[in-house]
Amino acid sequence: xxxxxxxxxxxxxxxxxxxxxxxxxxxxxxxxxxxxxxxxxxxxxxxxxxxxxxxxxxxxxxxxxxxxxxxxxxxxxxxxxxxxxxxxxxxxxxxxxxxxxxxxxxxxxxxxxxxxxxxxxxxxxxxxxxxxxxxxxxxxxxxxxx
Length: 146
Hints:
Elements: E1 6-15, E2 18-23, E3 39-40, E4 46-52, E5 61-65, H1 70-96, H2 105-133, E6 140-144
Helix pairs in contact: 1-2
């Protein structure tokens, strides 16, 4: 079984070794972790700039796929970085030894974890935005159907 993401689309523009592909709408798109990489244009069509090592032309129906590690990168971006921020926020306050009389230490460390979680989420958001701008490095045309 192939674990990579694949999708069928139509080439709408060719730019050297890259092509812009209009993706066929699928029900799985709503649940896909890589949905941040395919952007809808003004007419709500999902398009993606991909690498094209094959001789593609405008109008070709093609299969695009991604490397097997893309989902791991996206999931670590979405969940790993905020979780790491949460843990680091807790341990930072623990090792600093901050303590206040009216607030229990556990509550204070939890607040530090929440601050770390928000910081990690912000870092993930910036990382996702930058990744979405350069999606051609993640997907490529693997087959020309017609």
